[in-house]
Amino acid sequence: MKYPTREENYAEWYQRVVEDLAEHSPVRGCMVIKPWGYALWENIQAILDRVFKETGHQNAYFPLFIPLSFLEKEAAHVEGFAKECAVVTHHRLEIGPDGKLIPAAPLEEPLIVRPTSETIVGEMFAKWINSYRDLPLLINQWANVVRWEMRTRLFLRTTEFLWQEGHTAHETEEEAKEETLRMLGVYERFAHDCLAMPVIAGIKTESEKFPGAVTTYCIEGMMQDRKALQCGTSHFLGQNFAKASNIQFNDRNGELKLAWTTSWGATTRLIGGLVMSHGDDDGLVLPPRIASAHLVIIPVIHKEETRQEVISYCHSLAGELRHIPYHGRPLTVIVDERDMRGGDKSWSWIRKGVPCRIEIGPRDLATDQLGLMLRDYPHKEKKLLTRNELVAQFTEELDAMQKRIYDRAVAFQNAHIRRIDEREEFYAFFTPKNREQPEIHGGFALCHWSGEAEEEEIVKRDLNVTIRCIPVDASQEEGRCVISGKKSLRRVIFAKAY
Amino acid sequence: MKYPTREENYAEWYQRVVEDLAEHSPVRGCMVIKPWGYALWENIQAILDRVFKETGHQNAYFPLFIPLSFLEKEAAHVEGFAKECAVVTHHRLEIGPDGKLIPAAPLEEPLIVRPTSETIVGEMFAKWINSYRDLPLLINQWANVVRWEMRTRLFLRTTEFLWQEGHTAHETEEEAKEETLRMLGVYERFAHDCLAMPVIAGIKTESEKFPGAVTTYCIEGMMQDRKALQCGTSHFLGQNFAKASNIQFNDRNGELKLAWTTSWGATTRLIGGLVMSHGDDDGLVLPPRIASAHLVIIPVIHKEETRQEVISYCHSLAGELRHIPYHGRPLTVIVDERDMRGGDKSWSWIRKGVPCRIEIGPRDLATDQLGLMLRDYPHKEKKLLTRNELVAQFTEELDAMQKRIYDRAVAFQNAHIRRIDEREEFYAFFTPKNREQPEIHGGFALCHWSGEAEEEEIVKRDLNVTIRCIPVDASQEEGRCVISGKKSLRRVIFAKAY
Q1: How far is Cα B74 from Cα B213, in angstroms, rounded to an integer?
Q2: Which of A238, A308, A433, B271 is a good FRET partner for B63, with 20 to 30 A between their CA atoms?
């Protein structure tokens, strides 16, 4: 049951570590999210949803299906999504001549299973918006989407995934741009504060932006194989979708104007990012702010006559802790009474990444000394606390662990970002040192780029490296493009990516 | 903008009243749930989800798509759903000869968009369950499902709807039956306590049960046109799906056994039920426990110089109230500063069914007398309270309103349930008195039924009436079937239904 280490085989390590969270389903490309993984998604939802509402957004729900003709309304959009659309063509099954079911009742117009909802939301916005008084319109949707994938990887790339998609319409260009950046900031803070991931916020290049957007902003995280993972995007759509869907309003002077729109989204991919940012060779490491549970209490019973006392103590402690709020939700505490070997039990929780464990036996009750074990400490190391101390200090312990996990990720990221000015060094940076680990390479290269798509194509072709983003906080700095040597005014992030 | 009254045209009344909650989308049969409606669904989700977790269930997520061959595994199941399946046959779009998009890349095996998930969940359960130690397995999923409908009605019958579906597996028949009844009880209490709907819990007849179930339990509510609405179902599936999906386990004696399974669900249909149970001729009436918002504060500004003072007072009052918890969630208070006529503003909130309104002008500040207006009282009637009294009593006012709304629904239901023993009276009961209102008839008939499907067919054909359920609390009572005159041992509920 031991996994390969991250060094030995990163891809296989990921696949094994993620088993407690999700698995492949019999439906090609679609995953089943298991309870321990879904709890992470519920926590992500709860936190983001609260922030969306605090920033004035309301939730709504739009149809799963999109008529084919809607997709055609925005040229870049259809170009971007046509190749990965699941198409519904019939609305009934009948028994065929060989006794097998076959599709019957063809639709007049085929329907696409939504890969994203700009076109259908736009259609409704056009109905709902008449006057400047109806603006801004700030809507969010929690939903499933489908983008057909030939090669899938749990959470990172699946045909169906879960996400939220914000869709907003504004009176002015400036307001829409503000909204785009506001939501980018929401994602960035969420990644830092809750996921403990030191992401880099930036702008996508033309070749990497969302199909139909004017500008795509993103946050990019560095995984432990030093590849980049896009963890959220916020798009300034200009008037492209307003034109396509005819979203018009009477402005303050009574003139008919096109609205300015945005969209922004984060997905179950974040769970893959969590795993790859913090997991270690023993399994998952879940930051307390987002963890599926905070503490597992394991009753240790050597003799039958002490069973009742130990079990009740464990439940009473769990009950007491469950009343303590931790960043807006009550502490989640599990008492694990499963009938299995103590060692296996502990390992099952280490592997699942639960932040804290306590094993409680009759002696611990007698001495009032509880041994708190922390997931990011050596596994047998115990912090001895009385019950009162534990209850009083527990959330501080969690906050301290959250900070340690974040700091470790920051240190890792800093160690693997390099400013590179020479093409040769650039190529060496992205070339794996070890043939048996072709995935592991230098990391993020912070380099000058002249702004031409041709330069992007070269590194993509030669190294499978792309520009992840032009960091929003990049200061102006004169230099020469690392690929072409042409003049450049700022550095961008080059990396291999998921 | 005035609707027809319920008496004048019930169907049209429903369509108009529901406009604030949802609307038809350009996608045939699919609705858009608007923020005011979606907030109801969020409240339903929050409350049910808490109870599901308290009763030991965990959330997970299963694929949207189901391979055609899975559906075929359970004969009754495929028979029940084949006619309403949306079928995905292609996974790509290409530009056709006429420049239009056409489906390309046909799938080897077509996929069904899930109408329900027993078959795909069963497949995973078979993998996850090995031993009696893995049981019970108690899973719930919040998801969208698709059942193709030719005639749709917002919330009541749509091609796509949102729901939760519980799926559980157990060691013994008895445990599975207990679970089925436990979840029926959860739905029943939720309908009574939160939706203020006095539903009747019962068992479906063979002809009305879930395709593939051994026994289907349901809760049935009476709408104001006296028709029945099924508001939730809980199915004892016996070993039917365990057989179909091969869900086996080693029992306590090491023998391989088939598991016993259940499934249970409630949908966005409940929102339609809320509307039709409590709405009046002025619009929606939302019970406080589930309402999208509890209170709207409307600043009344006659002179510009008092504006600032009034607005800040309103926000300060709202802020104070928002800290008060009400049945597990904070009070939701809206300050409506929209630039429109006061009368129109008030009416817009009456129509939306918000439980309480307060209009606040400079004089109210001076006298510290706030006029609380309650949705179920005459619209101009004000309860005068000081600010402190309002804050102290507000949740009591909500609870009292919740009770009044429930009591009114109970009285309505009691007034329109009749014990009927004669066939002639039965036919008269279900025949509309008024030709212009063909929908309105007697209500629920509590009658003897001998248990034969033929009798059901007769009343279905003659009156479009069905047996809604055999009430679980029906006492044994000898009698004669109201249709055939054959011997019967208990009464069942006959009604027209949505």
Answers
A1: 10
A2: B271
Asked whether the beta carbons of residue B84 and residue A103 sit closer than 8 angstroms, the reply is no
Per-residue confidence (pLDDT) for residue B342, from 0 to 100: 84
Residue of A nearest to B111 (CA): A27
State how far residue A140 is from chain B, nearest Cα, in angstroms: 9
B114: CB partners within 8 A, 6+ apart: B62, B63, B64, B65, B66, B120, B143, B145, B146
The ranges of chain B with pLDDT < 50 are none
Distance from CA of A92 to the nearest CA of B (A): 5
Contact (Cβ atoms closer than 8 angstroms) between residue A164 and residue A264: no
Q: How many residues does chain A have?
A: 498
Asked if the Cβ–Cβ distance from B25 to A93 is below 8 Å, we say: no
Q: Given the structure tokens 């769970």, which residue do they identify?
A: A271
Q: Return d(Cα A343, Cα A354) in angstroms, integer.
A: 15
In this predicted model, what pLDDT tens digit does every residue of A384-406 receive, in sequence order? Answer: 999 999 999 999 999 999 999 99
Domains and CATH numbers, chain A: 10-64+115-199+233-278 (3.30.930.10), 295-413 (3.40.50.800), 417-495 (3.30.110.30)
CA-only gyration radius of chain B, Å: 26
**Model confidence over A58-117: pLDDT tens digits?**
999 999 999 999 988 888 888 899 999 999 999 999 988 888 899 999 999 999 999 999
Longest dimension (CA), chain A: 84
Q: How many CB atoms lie within 10 A of CB B415?
A: 11
Min Cα separation B169/chain A (Å) = 15
- In angstroms, the Cα distances linking B221 to A111, A171, A429, B277 are 35, 45, 68, 8
Nearest to B167 by CA among B84, B253, B234, B231: B234
Query: Quick one: three-class SS letters along B199-256?
Result: CEEEECCHHHCCCCCCEEEEEEEECCCCCEEEEEEEEECCCHHHHHHCCEEECCCCCE
Q: Angle A442-A231-A332 (CA atoms, 0-180°, nearest 5)?
A: 110
Say if residues A157 and A253 touch (Cβ distance below 8 Å).
Answer: no
* Distance separating alpha carbons of residues B64 and B117, to the nearest angstrom: 9
Tokens of A46: 């709860």
CB-CB neighbors (< 8 A) of A113 in chain B: 64, 88, 113
Chain A residue with minimal CA distance to B332?
A: A53
| Closest residue in chain B to residue A111, using alpha carbons only | B27
Confidence category of residue A157, pLDDT binned at 50, 70, 90: very high
Q: Note the pLDDT tens digit of each residue in B140-157.
A: 999 999 999 988 999 999
Residue type, B482: V
Which residues share a beta bridge with B144? B162
- Helix, strand, or coil (residue A41): helix
Neighboring chain B residues of A344 at a CB cutoff of 8 Å:
none
Nearest CA in chain A to B109: A102
Residue by residue, DSSP assigns B300-317 as --SSGGGHHHHHHHHHHH
